[in-house]
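Input/output pair, single chain:
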Amino acid sequence: MGFSLRRWRPIHLLGSWVAYWIVLAAVTLSPAIGAIRRLASAPRNTGQVSFGVGDGQFELTVIEAGKTIFDGRASLLATTLLVAGPPLLSWLLWMWTRPKRGERAPAGPGALGEGAWPGVPQDADRTRSHERRPEQES
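Output:
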């Protein structure tokens, strides 16, 4: 079975976003987390961590014994694009590849296709409880 966005459900899309955000956080924040962990194991009151937002950017500084061991900056625009850009593009691509109204999604392993539930009518055969079929009218 090949990779196909047409087979994805909303839960798959959400899962891909969460996976992306976890990888993004691991890649971008690992140097800062390492510096903070190093500071946490240092003797008490020998360092400081400061985080702020100013001049259109995020700033994180870790200082140990008067020496800066980490200084990171990221613009608000770049951070916003990294956090929201790829998930938004994947959603747009997913919406673009979705079946059109009235068109059925291709059935695959685990997907409900024609005759998936014996005895349960498919979309074309279904009637709402308030609708009457011509043969039922008196």
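The CA atoms of residues 24 and 55 lie 24 Å apart. The helical segments are 10-40, 76-97.
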